[in-house]
C-alpha cells in the first residue's frame, strides 16, 4: 500500500488505499490478469515473449481506465 510511516494521517489512508487495491485487483481479474492478493505479480521463466506481451497489453487496457493516467 506504500504508506509513509512518518505521515501523521497514516491510519486515515489505510482504508481508501485498501479499497483502491481491491478495485485494481478486480480490474486486473476482469482483464484476465490473476494477481496474488491483488497486489503481487509474478512471471515464470516458462513464459514466452508472446505471453508477456499479451499480459502487458492487458495491463495497458486496465491502466487506460484509471483517471489521471494519460
Largest pleated sheet:
none
| End-to-end separation | 22 Å
The run of helices and strands is HH
User: How much is the radius of gyration in Å?
Assistant: 15 Å
Quaternary structure type:
single chain
The low-pLDDT segments are none
Shape: elongated
Task: State the helicity in percent bands.
Answer: 40-55%
Structural class: mainly alpha
Mean pLDDT across every amino acid position: 87
- Percent strand equals under 5%
Number of H- or I-type helical stretches: 2
- Number of distinct beta strands: 0
Reconstruct the topology from this structure.
Layout: H1 10-30, H2 49-63
Summarize the structure.
The protein has about 70 residues and is an all-alpha fold. The chain contains two helices and no strands.
Amino acid at each position: 500500500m506504500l504508506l509513509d510511516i512518518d505521515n501523521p494521517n497514516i491510519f486515515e489512508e489505510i482504508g481508501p488505499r485498501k479499497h483502491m487495491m481491491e478495485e485494481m485487483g478486480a480490474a486486473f481479474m476482469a482483464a484476465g490478469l490473476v494477481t496474488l492478493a491483488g497486489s503481487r505479480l509474478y512471471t515464470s521463466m516458462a513464459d514466452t515473449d508472446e505471453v508477456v506481451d499479451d499480459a502487458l497489453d492487458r495491463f495497458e487496457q486496465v491502466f487506460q481506465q484509471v483517471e489521471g493516467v494519460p
